[in-house]
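Final report, results section. Input specification for complex C-07:
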Amino acid sequence: MSGHHISTDKTLLSVAAALLALTILTVGVTYIHIPAPWNIITAMGIAVVKAGLVALFFMNLYWDERFNSMLLIAGLAFFGLLVALTLLDTLFRAEVIPAF
Amino acid sequence: MADHSSSTTHSRFFQHHFVDADQQFETAKMGMWIFLVTEILMFGGLFAAYIVFRLWYPDLFTQASTQLNTFWGGVNTVVLIGSSLTVAMAIKSAQLNQKKNIAINLGITLALAAVFMVIKYFEWTHKFELGIFPGQFYDFGGIEHEKANVFFSLYYLMTGLHGIHVLIGMGLMGWLLWRSLKNHFDSEYYTPIEITGLYWHLVDIIWIFLFPLFYLIE
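Structure output:
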């Protein structure tokens, strides 16, 4: 049964250790001052990897029904659509209106 | 999919309208994933607002971020990662019928969530003392940007909505702990721990993004 995968302590602790290491890395790279926009891309890249580890191995998507992964991906796709359509407006205004 | 020869249909928590316990488990889990999609889209509105304002006022975010304490933000990141680990351990303990370990892991999770909220409390109250309030109530002279209140409105909204989710999570963990002490969970039935775990991991993932977006701006 795909829903009853039992994770070993080794897997769970390895994932937690990787998340800890990536947290230290994402704080650490702020001290070497990567020029923009690469600093934001680096920080978000590390965050995406961390989120992926949590989703795959703590939320069990790696072993789960693919349908649940599809739900997550659909949610993220609609978030992308929200951001993209919003930016088509806000990035192309002559001035920032309303002014807040 | 559902194994119709399952012998796990005798659990006291088995509901008769399901084919078997596995189908009941998979159904609950799918329902939770659909709820998590709505959660992503609720937070998504705030993330979209963040993106819009950061692109409008990039200097504001660089300046205002200096008011946030990276150390305590980092500690809270580690605390939430630890609590995600203990939730996963609680589920594994249930699957292996280690009933005492279910309660221990849920208890640690609850304690770590409380640590997170205590740190958040001190972060917020420190800002209130400085006059850093959201929106029109903003009354702090330390940032040379006329839109400084916008950054902190986003900060309070996003960490606040996240904090509410942590508080709800604590309530759920307490409920699970109580039920685990009443011996409700074993390898045949641990659905509430599984789906509360999914919720808790999503709360962790949201924080994984909030931490670099607010605390780690150079």
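The domain at 21-215 of chain B is CATH 1.20.120.80 (Four Helix Bundle (Hemerythrin (Met), subunit A)). The CA atoms of residues 33 and 198 of chain B lie 8 Å apart. This concludes the modelling results for the funded period.
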